[in-house]
Amino acid sequence: MGGIDLAHLAEGVEGLRSVPALLHRNATEFGNAPAYREKEYGIWQSWTWAETEKEIEALALGLLNLGVNEGDYVAIIGRNRPTLYWSMVAAQSVGAIPVPLYQDAVAEEMEYVLGHCGARFAIVADQEQADKVIEVQDDLHQFEHLIYVDPRGMRKYEHSHLHEYSHVQDQGRAARDEYLPELKRRRDKLTYDDTCVMLYTSGTTGKPKGVVLSNRNIIEAAKSSSEFDHLRRSDSVLAYLPMAWVGDFIFSIGQAYWCGFCVNCPEAPQTMYENLHEIGPTYFFAPPRYFEERITAITIRMEDAGRVKKWLYDTFMAHARKVGPRILDGKPVGFMDRLKYALGQVLVYGPVRNRAGMTKVRVAYTAGEAIGPEIFDFWRSLGINLKQLYGQTEASVFITVQPDGEVRSDTVGVPAPGVEIRIAENGEVFYRSPGAFVEYYKNPESTRDTKDAEGWVATGDAGFIEEDTGHLRIIDRAKDVGQMADGSLFAPKYVENKLKFFPNILEAVVFGAGKDRCTAFINIDLTAVGNWAERNNIAYASYQELAGHPQVLETVQKHVEEVNESVAQDDMLSGCQVHRFLILHKELDADDGELTRTRKVRRKIIGEKFEDLVTALYDGSESVYTETEVTYEDGRKGKIKATLEIRDAKVWPVKPKAMAAE
Amino acid sequence: MPGYFHQEEAGGSRVKDTEGYVTADGRQIGGVLMEMKNITLKFGGVTAISDISFDVHEGEIRAIIGPNGAGKSSMLNIISGFYTPTIGEVWYKGAKRPQMKPYEVARMGVARTFQNIALFEGMTVLDNVMTGRLTHMNASIASQALWWGRARNEEMENREIVEKVIDFLEIQAIRKTPVGRLPYGLKKRVELARALAAEPSILLLDEPMAGMNVEEKEDMSRFILDVNDEFGTTICLIEHDMGVVMDLSDRVVVMDYGKKIGDGTPDEVRNNQDVIDAYLGVPH
User: Among partner residues A42, A43, A152, which is closest to B226 by beta-carbon distance?
Assistant: First the structure.
């Protein structure tokens, strides 16, 4: 049964207005199909839809037993595990609202979110998460009960408000007769406009905001996107991205429950590559960084391979780059080229895809950041249908997507089904869709600023629609797009992305708003540069030492100059060439507040924190001494001291045409 | 006491007579599990250990500390049956232990790790940990060669226990990695896994933190505490890192030049003048 058939079925049947209702349909219609798998004790354990419904029911009854009320907020914290996905649906079943949190958040970050939503209950994975909640719970007045999944290390805790997950389920099962009528009553009451989930945006500026998404938002978004890509019950995904992120909610709950496909959870975060290889999902999502890291890993291994293998790899990959994407798009390709591609399929492409766990992938998406054209083409040339989409939490993910056959690295696609797009005069992108969020929780002001009375939502991104193709192109965050001292356009992310396309450069932060020229901070990629250092017998003891190595500076300078050359070609943005740069002495880190939890650069915070470095970039000095406070994983703080060299990069003359345009 | 990974193996208390005590943080410690009575160990004319007595209670973490050459490792080797004391007796689970081979001692529920890692470098982590189950396997060579009958069932049962150990020590990601390719800190953890796979009553750790960085030490400390806490395993460890010893252990024996110079809780030992002298050095 394909997605279309299911959709038809759904239209005809009343009551498919919530995730618990979809669960019930799946358990009734194809109860024996696998719903969840998780690797535990070295073996993939699996649960069918019927078993899943039983597990969720037991937990929901247990929650009733603990006194969860309709409209309560239930925080859910931990890595992707079936038990935590069930917790979300169980919370929904009793009329409560699940609020998944980023598991790597520190206690204070959790305190804000738990306090803001007024969670009375939290369901956490293990002792580590439990400790964080316990640490902050004294300041949370509404907070009552904590439920933990893994009992390890929890035995000695005071248990008056602490419950083990399986015990909650046991109590639910024991009290089934007593609570079942109430559970049914609450489950049947759920409407299309009730809140499905509340997700906190990581926020590149300010405090996180709680995005309220209704059942309508989630189910409509899941439905139209599943139809767009012909997702079906036999598909499978690997759930490894943070549960607090909207994408995971849409893929692992929205689309999974709508289509009835199987969600696979890795054994541990470190085993993700191996588990991906074992499962071989048919539908896959990863941020650009992931695709980049995999290529770096493959390239490094090929550097170490024997000469014959290396030659085979180089030869066939060159051929794939030439014809692979065209074959994938169904465009005409000569017979000899096809023959050679088929041979490469056997010798190179197949094995590489297999190692990467992408053998069965029908649809793969990347989003969140711009992806380098070489990276994008690498995967597409292997015959993997990697596409881009553009979305955000407020849209229940989908704003634009690339249809099969219209895939390019520099656009983010056409409006997703049901989405309308409008570009404001200042270039900001607005959209209106069934997936557009209800409101920011307890923040009517921000809601008003973002969503107008007619339902148009501001994305905060500046972009334009290409005349001939209708594809959307994103330039930068609207508020980051500024002007330089001479009035020319300043779009830092445009330049940063170009820099980041070099494997040696992990992160870049470009400054220049209101100044006469642009400068940049660079973070090197320790994997790529470290491998280069090893190959060239360059000893280093730390990131800091490698980052300060003259040859590394030399290499990065070449990259910066190459970027300058390409930026100079662009009429609008030629003023954004990087005149001076330095390599930062530490990696930008979310724990230090420099990146968001989804690893986006927090420009303003970085600018303030490293003010001395920015000053040095502009005052012409050749080196600068600095001290920086860092936070270790366990929350302790320390200081890094360094003297950084500042380099001048060659810039290309701005084209006269651009001058004339001013 | 909670069961180990395997219900029938959960030894229960076979400890007799003497009573336990309650630790500072409120844990109930059982009776005497092992007692060393007047142990003296000589190698020719050299006396490595002279007339030392101490006991290990069930469920406690007992540390043996002392400067280099104090005789700590020799003491551990006596407990594990590698050395036989020249004079003195080892009492285990309420009975005097006769002279035994190390593998016989291992069968009685004593497992250990080594100061200088002793793993099979060419074998995977999984296979190394499986060797910890050897004392629990009885299938004949023929049966094992044919992978039939008893050998097959035995391996499946034991694999399950090994997988639980792997899960417990969070080494799933390196399950199939040859040990030779692992960094030092992980090798130490694999050694602990192998010892734990034997489901010991008493676990001997010879310098579990040696050569580790701070983060690895923290991880290892947590695992040692978790093992003790989750399975009630009695742990006897030698360690040089005083911070670790004082934090982890319930009671400490201090040795110097083969003699016992202190015995008690970490606080008592810390304030013992002989111990301070031994560590800081006084003119002899």
Answer: A152
